[in-house]
Automatic annotation (TrEMBL):
Biological classification of the source: Bacteria, Pseudomonadati, Pseudomonadota, Alphaproteobacteria, Sphingomonadales
Name the record gives this protein: Putative mRNA 3-end processing factor
GO terms for MF: RNA endonuclease activity
NCBIfam families given in the database record: Xnuc_lig_assoc
InterPro entries on file: MBL, RibonucZ/Hydroxyglut_hydro, Xnuc_lig_assoc
Ranges where the record places region Disordered: 1-31
Naturally occurring in which organism (per UniProt): Sphingomonas pseudosanguinis
Annotated PANTHER family: BLL1145 PROTEIN, CLEAVAGE AND POLYADENYLATION SPECIFICITY FACTOR FAMILY MEMBER
Amino acid sequence: MAPADVWVDPSEPEPKALVTHGHADHARGGHGTVWATPETLAIMEARYGPQNGVGVGYGETIRLGEVDVSFVPAGHVLGSAQIVLDYRDERVVVSGDYKRRADPTCTPFEPVKCDVFVTEATFALPVFRHPETGDEIDKLIARLHANPTRCVLVGAYALGKAQRVIAELRVRGHEAPIYLHGALARLCALYQELGVDLGELRMVADTPKAEMAGHVVMCPPGALNDRWSRRLPEPITAMASGWMRVRQRARQKNVELPLILSDHADWDELTTTLTEIAPREVWVTHGREEALVHWCETRQMKARALALVGFEDEDD
């Protein structure tokens, strides 16, 4: 943004960067100075090493050049924020990624009235309507109890999704130890250090095969069908992702138990958010831009798609 001489979620290293959250398609290493929430800075340091970071808490306002900048909860993952830019008499909100569902691991999304709202469109098609979170977690628990000699192996993105699945299991009364692939250990430990209670976690590498029968095991999606899974007791393969709504994706990944659990807003939540905020103009990024732009235009809301490079569908 020129009046502030700063980039928001730049895809390449820049002298000054405002970062919405810690996912790799939004937070890169190598920037000169980074402004982000303290939690996002901690995540970036865990992933990229020391940052020249300035922590900005929710609701706090800083001045960069001629622009007042504040960070408001986005409800996507721990520390995720919408970046509010006030310049003269205009307000722009860059939402980053966001969801409207309750999540025990992060602060809920807060709508902010603005002139221009920059929204994601990951699930911006009417076919994407996420089911109730508790129902999906209950499916996981039921399958676990029905197969006491096996384990349920849940593939989940290392930042945000894995910790949310664990926390949602705890909310539903699942108090047993949960076993982790080594790739998830560092960020789960960081979440716990930052005050998110995940209960008792154990490492698969430190556990005899038979001891994991009747338990939940978590791994990154890429390990679901890897040789690593052979050390587990007859795993029932599950995956937690909004993309599990698409049966072909579940089949491609050999997923036996699809869990439709997303950290992005679905179609109804996207359109409800735009109705609630009622911006003068909507800019739509990385996802199904055309459908959401069309929805805006049919409601006399000015909208356009931003063709941004480097923003991709995550293993939501």
